[in-house]
Amino acid sequence: MTSTTDLTTSELTFPAGFSFGTATAAYQIEGAAAEDGRRDSIWDAFCRVPGAVIGGDSGEVVCDHYHRMPADVDLIADLGLDTYRFSTSWARVCPDGGPANPAGVDFYSRLVDELLDRGVRPWLTLYHWDLPQALQEAGGWVNRDTAHRFADYAQVMVDALGDRVDVWTTLNEPWCSSFLSYAAGEHAPGHTSPSEAVDAAHHLLLAHGLGVQVLRGHGRDLTVGITTNHTVADPADPDDPGDVDAARRIDGAFNRVFLDPIFRGDYPADVLEDMSWAGLGRVAREGDMALISAPIDVLGVNYYNGGAFAAPDPRVHEPLTHPGPGGLLRRSPYVGSERVRGVSRGLPVTDMGWEIQPDGLTRLLLRLQREYTGPAGIPMVITENGAAFPDVADAGGFVQDHDRIAYLRDHLAAVHAALEQGADVRGYLVWSLLDNFEWAWGCGKRFGIVHVDFDTLERTPKASAQWYSGVARTGRVTLVS
């Protein structure tokens, strides 16, 4: 046993001006699903499908942020956080994908004013997966016109908030809203068509490019970017050519399929080959790649875990479908690489079953700096990092979440290590402020640093919130070994 006198501590100091904040998404916290002109998004419709979401949960009420917004802003400010990344609901602002809904726009205008009044920088994400259901009925992201409707929506938002919001993200995690949504069926609209997924991926990238064009056309000099989610794909056996190829495939299908068009103006040749049978790139038109690769000002980086991958086992012919979180059949999201196997490395896991691998974040940031953002002169911000654990609240709603503190500490240390090795990282936004609706997993997976009692809707900062507040106020992380 190690006594307290055997423990040693060291302190990491982040650069002056490094931002510490938090993030949420509209459908995951707002509630008020049918109020003030808001109409169905694809997630409202998906939640009504039996077996789509664990427990039949939905975002109909969830955290009721729509009615409790000022108090939630107070929480952010009281924790000493300097940045709040939120998404605006397309289904609230332009309910049918067409004309603006003044009441919906007004909600976000009031949110921005509350943030600014409390000294918190607003960071606005235009799309965090809540496509208006009316647009889905016209084809959703498989329909090229949806990208143009996104540009119209971006124009509505920048006209309303561009005088007060300086930082804008076009899309959050387009991998999820294409491959996880149209190939795997795990996210709304719940389709399992690889050919739809690759078309959706291209149209999402086109929407990003058109959105950048709209935001650049605003009178103010805005900071414009996109947030992509990443894995670090390692071969299970680095000496096995099949495993090396399996890791290459996952890296291509998860990371490079979006990074290369954004930063290099084209899809990677090997990914085009891997996904050729599904038709990746077939819907591209002349001029698309120039729009998609227009310069951005910041790359938002979302990281939760990496993985080890092995070649398909020729002795096993597993079906391409499997039960998803709510019970409905799903497919692999890795189009063209469906039989690649994920291999456990025996690492600790979160409540999502995701391996905890902080060093993967260091490696990711250094790779992005070396291959993408550095050559383009673009800084990075960690726009999401956090973990779900099986929290147990006491009678007062307080959660002593030492496991989450350890996760955040170790990942902040990983960011610091990347900084020391030359990665240009400007901030870290913890996911998430509140326990919320975790998509197909319902409300049972708690990522928040603030506990939410979903019966009373009472908020109680967890031990991790208190810890993170100290980091944000001092810019220092204490390590214990």
Explain this structure.
With 481 residues, the chain is an alpha/beta fold. It has a single domain (4-480), classed as TIM Barrel (Alpha-Beta Barrel). 38% of the residues lie in helices and 17% in strands. It contains 15 helices and 17 strands. It has helices at 26-29, 42-47, 65-78, 90-93, 102-117, 133-136, 145-161, 174-183, 194-216, 241-264, 269-274, 288-292, 358-376, 402-420, 463-474; strands spanning 9-13, 19-23, 83-87, 121-127, 167-172, 223-230, 233-235, 298-303, 307-310, 321-323, 329-331, 341-343, 380-384, 425-431, 450-452, 459-461, 476-480. It has an eight-stranded parallel β-barrel with strand order 2-3-4-5-6-8-13-14, surrounded by seven helices. The chain has a three-stranded mixed β-sheet with strand order 7-9-12, with helices on one face. Helix 14 (402-420) runs parallel beside helix 15.
List keywords for this structure.
eight-stranded parallel barrel; alpha/beta; 38% helix; 481 residues; TIM Barrel; globular; disordered N terminus; single chain; 17 strands; three-stranded mixed beta sheet; Glyco_hydro_1
**Spatial shape:** globular
User: Count of DSSP E strands?
Assistant: 17
Oligomer: single chain
Instruction: Return Rg in Å.
Output: 21 Å
According to CATH, the fold-level topology is TIM Barrel
Task: Please identify the structural class as seen in this structure.
Answer: alpha/beta
End-to-end separation in angstroms reads 14 Å
CATH 2nd-level architecture = Alpha-Beta Barrel
Tally of individual helices? 15
Biggest sheet descriptor: 8 strands, parallel, barrel
Q: What would you give as the CATH superfamily?
A: Glycosidases
> Average pLDDT, to the nearest integer?
96
In CATH, what is the class? Alpha Beta
* Poorly predicted runs of 5 or more residues: 1-5
Strand order of the largest sheet: 2-3-4-5-6-8-13-14
How much helical structure, as a percent, in the residues? 25-40%
Query: How many domains?
Result: 1
Strand content: 15-25%
Protein name: beta-glucosidase
Keywords: Glycosidase, Hydrolase
EC number: 3.2.1.21
Organism: Propioniciclava coleopterorum
